[in-house]
Amino acid sequence: MKFCDIQLPDFPLFLAPMEDITDPSFRMVCKMQGADVMYTEFISADGLIRDGEKSVKKLDIYDNERPIGIQLYGHLLDAMVEAALMAEEASPELIDINFGCPVRKIANRGAGAGMLKNIPLMIEMTSAIVKAVSLPVTVKTRLGWDDDSKIIVEIAERLQDVGIKALTIHGRTRAQLYKGVADWTLIGEVKNNPRMHIPIIGNGDIDGPLKAKEMFDRYGVDGIMIGRATVGRPWIFRDIRHYLSTGELLPEPSVSEKADLALFHLDRSLEYKEGRRAIYEMRRHLSNYFKGLPHFKETRLKLLTATEVEDVKAVIAEIKDRWGAFRSEDKTSVYSV
Length: 337
Hints:
single chain; alpha/beta; TIM Barrel; 9-stranded parallel β-sheet; two-stranded antiparallel ribbon; 14 helices; 43% helix; 12% strand; globular
């Protein structure tokens, strides 16, 4: 498949941009596990043009994670254009505009999904960014603001008309946040609209190979973006890719394999961040890396309260030693604990 002048395999898989999650260390791990396209954590346009340290740091991208897009959000047109020009200097493959984040402090300012309440500004801003940068521009958005304004079919046409090269649609409204079930029917309607000719990427509730194949088959999307289901479970990309290619479901990685990957992930995070911050931001991953282990409560508490790198590594080593061969789908391999 051709995506923003990038040749991708059939049924491409995208890692969704997530704040404090899709940093370079996690992107590297997901790439190793089979993700095809990466995105940075979303970056505040206001923070970037004011040279905010956290925002500028998010522009760091590495060759081992390409192709990659830098995602921006903001509610002011001039600031978004200036931020897009700054992002272009970091040499990503594309610039992505976030019109989908439902978080109250962002949406209520008119940024992210808040732009779904001001479609004229959304289109004007997108057009201005497309004209300002030489890189392909893409958009990620939702079905609409609420159930009474699911206007994604119209929005998709208008965004395509001003020059975006691909569109990712999360199958919920802003009002839903992440509750309920993602509605892919409107994603499919956009994809099958004869007026649309750009790639349409579907997002929402993809939690494994069977669901991914169902969405590709039923709605004909050009790609699938996965977000929350990747946290502490980066092998989901490996599992989906293998199933789409062979029809075979891979077994869950053993705890020993998960422990090795968790240690690799932690070491990469430590290369990028100060130790305590790396540990704190790894906790949400680590709680999922080892989710489902029997008699794990005490060890889990140690894992998620350790504040020194060596202590975290010691707990992971303990987990590997105690549960190493266990696979969550194979209850017969549980050790006596």
